[in-house]
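Pasting as-is:
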Amino acid sequence: QVQLVESGGGLVQAGGSLRLSCAASGSGLSIDVMAWYRQAPGKERELVASITSDGASKYADSVKGRFSIDSDNVKRTVSLQMDSLTPDDTAVYFCTVDIRHRYGSGWSSPMNYWGQGTQVTVSS
């Protein structure tokens, strides 16, 4: 099975920074996309940033210029550097990955996996 382990959440003051990390483990996998979502109280789950296996990245308008996503395909990790944090960034952040599983000589359709989430709280 695929497991995602997240780390780096915490409490910071407005204007501060945090770096979230996520590691995917498993065998017979091909990762298409790794991404970070967040969900704040009273709000829908939001795609924060994503990155494909070839390095193409996308960002929500609300975090452009402040957040940066990066991945290591060998280590199967994805990180989210968050700078100039504001209270509006307070949320549970989830790592997610789209993975194809190897079956014989072929591959499955993409399957989506989620981490447990890590809390980010920005005060002031």
